[in-house]
# Entry
Amino acid sequence: MQTLAITIFLIWGSITAAVFVYVALSTRSPDELSQTAYKRTRVLVLGGLTSLAVVLLALTLPYTPYPDGGSVPDRVIYASGKQFAFKLSDQPITREQAMDDEVFLSIKPIRTGDLVEFRVSGADVTHGFSIYDLDGRVQAQTQAMPQYVNRLRHRFPKSGLYHVLCFEFCGIGHPTMRAQLQVEDDPAVEDAVTSN
# Structure
């Protein structure tokens, strides 16, 4: 995907540079400007840009972040960020629970392949809620903001221990703000495979 983005950028940058060079060279001569040619060029440029926008929209629309937006998630996990920790729960988290250092919340392991909806909020300041895959790459992220719930949907493809890190600098303890998500294969599926 990065190679495609760089290629598009280089092509678009080259076209833009060529247009600027053409315009700069064409303004050297003091010829009269033909209104017919001017209007025709305007229509061609507008039509070309509109066509390009429609093509790019059609190519990128399947990659929107929420293709499962209309479906019911398999699991809902509530997350609250507070300097300098995340609290995760299978039940809604009250503000008092989010602020209380003595309240430790936990969640059951997540099944591989389940569509999980995280309902993320912040208890004090804005935090970043980012999920890293097993290789340490960011897979999904949203903001954990006070008095607001952001919904983040993610499907975990493999079993293992996924990390949640704060993606927004929130103070001196920012690097220690993390949580873990245990993703496990469905035991019913494993039993069916081993019995065959």
Summary: The helical segments are 2-26, 35-60, 95-99, 187-195. The mean pLDDT is 85.
